[in-house]
Specification:
Elements: H1 3-11, H2 18-29, H3 35-48, H4 52-63, E1 81-85, H5 94-103, E2 108-112, H6 122-126, H7 138-148, E3 150-154, H8 161-171, H9 179-192, E4 197-204, H10 213-229, E5 233-240, H11 251-262, H12 269-286, H13 292-304, H14 307-318, H15 329-332, E6 338-342, E7 346-351, H16 353-363, E8 379-381, E9 389-390, E10 397-401, H17 404-416, E11 418-421, E12 431-436
Parallel strand pairs: 1-4, 2-3, 4-5
Antiparallel strand pairs: 5-12, 6-10, 7-9, 7-11, 8-10
């Protein structure tokens, strides 16, 4: 089989056969198909999409391209469940959600990705923690999940290796926003991780890959249906991404905000609502709770009691990080050379969150090409939420940059990404829709 024929088939609007999809996945996994041909097929799929059957076959083939975990022999004593976000700006939910869910009786083997397009990556953020091994071997991963209740790691070379390569190529070739490719990428990792259940956080808005509600619904439906075909019970929550989630955007800055949350010192209202909704849904999808309000209250208590913070500290230590990282996070995290506020006037009425994410890439906090090293200290903190009246005392945000010139560029980019008015904007709900079992 010639791979150029596979490309032509999809380029011309055809449906890929199971053999063609397996040929593609095998070539991804062993790197026998060069990057330019991979990107060509990815673009053809982006332009012509895939049928539900094609997407399901691609998902299952990528899940089987490497190691597939099986937790049944571990006798964990609780359900194995995970959450996955389609990506946003300032989305640091995983670092709070995993220990909260573990404190509530779940086992969370969270295998995440690096930055993709304008969105930040959980793996990159985890690597801000000194000594933290974000890519441990499977024996260590299993041990940490079993003993602590959760482990937040990056995708290893053994787990869905076909997706790992395709993910990196999509990131730099303008082929990220494809429903079947997003579906296959997410679910291949989750199926390979051996989950009992999954909760999806599907973002919608200016900072999401799906900017319109109909698009987000299409993606959520695709993920729920494809997961169901693979035997993975999945619920989806569509959440708003028309502004930065929380008060920070940037790798180390988001880790620090997450630790403040776990210490119950500062819990941004929109971030808190998303965290608790997703955690509660994890208890619902696994059957640990049958009432969402009770589930949410149980998750909240895991934070206020300090149990979630203890779990995170144990996870950090078990993966090579500091045992006291939650309590002393600021002493461990890197800081930028230049820290400056940026000011504007009037009410903040609208934010192009994608442009904010791109501004972080320009600061060096995100990738322009595969394998590029990041400056984990840069980004924005103290980000004003929509509706804030900005003046000489209340900044739009505080910029963290490597140089004064970088800070000046970031300030210009940030202000350009925002709209200001004389009256506050109407409130926008952060939880848009909950889909349980495809409903």
């Amino acid at each position: 089989m010639l791979f150029t024929d596979v490309i032509r088939n999809k380029r011309d609007g055809g449906q890929l056969s199971g053999d063609e999809i397996q040929f593609f996945v095998d070539g991804l996994a062993d790197s026998s198909i060069p990057a330019e041909q991979v990107s060509s097929l990815a673009m053809a799929i982006f332009l012509n999409s895939m049928s539900f059957d094609e997407a399901a076959k691609l998902t299952q083939a990528m899940a089987s391209s490497g190691t597939v975990l099986d937790w049944r022999s571990e006798d964990l004593g609780g359900p194995v469940v995970d959450k996955h976000s389609t990506g946003g700006v300032g989305d640091k939910v995983s670092f709070m959600l995993a220990p909260i869910a573990a404190a509530c009786g779940c086992y969370v083997p969270m295998i995440s990705g690096r930055g993709l397009g304008h969105t930040g990556g959980t793996t990159d953020k985890a690597e801000c923690i000194p000594g933290y091994n974000a890519t441990p071997d499977f024996a260590t991963f299993n041990k940490v999940v079993k003993s602590v209740g959760c482990a937040v790691i990056g995708q290893t070379s053994d787990l869905a290796p076909a997706d790992r390569r395709l993910y990196a190529i999509r990131d730099v070739t303008g082929t990220v926003e494809s429903v079947p490719l997003i579906t296959a990428s997410i679910l291949s990792k989750k199926i390979a991780a051996g989950l009992d259940a999954l909760v999806m956080d599907v973002k919608v808005g200016s900072g999401a890959f799906m900017s319109e509600f109909d698009q987000a619904m299409e993606l959520a439906d695709s993920i729920v249906r494809t997961a169901g075909k693979a035997g993975l019970t999945t619920h989806a929550i569509i959440t708003d991404m028309n502004e930065v989630l929380g008060t920070t955007a940037g790798n180390a800055l988001e880790i620090e905000e997450s630790m403040r949350y776990l210490r119950n010192e500062q819990r941004d209202p929109r971030l808190d609502e998303v965290v608790l909704a997703l955690c509660a849904e994890m208890l619902m999808v696994t059957g640990l709770e049958t009432d969402r309000l009770v589930a949410s209250q149980r998750c909240d208590e895991a934070v206020t009691s300090g149990r979630a913070a203890e779990v995170f500290g144990s996870m950090s230590a078990a993966l090579g990080g500091p045992a006291d990282f939650v309590e002393k996070s600021l002493t461990y995290l890197g800081t930028a050379n230049v820290i400056k506020p940026v000011f504007a006037g009037g009410y903040l009425t609208e934010v192009d969150a994608r442009s904010v994410g791109n501004a972080i890439i320009e600061l060096g906090g995100g990738r322009r090409r595969v394998g590029e090293d990041l400056d984990l200290s840069v980004g924005f903190s103290d980000i004003a939420p929509i509706g804030t009246l900005l003046d000489a005392e209340t900044p739009l945000a505080v910029i963290h940059a490597a140089s004064d010139s970088d800070a000046a560029t970031a300030a210009k980019n940030l202000v350009t990404a925002c709209t200001f008015g004389k009256t506050p904007a109407a409130d926008r709900p952060v939880i848009v829709k909950t889909m349980s079992g495809g409903s």
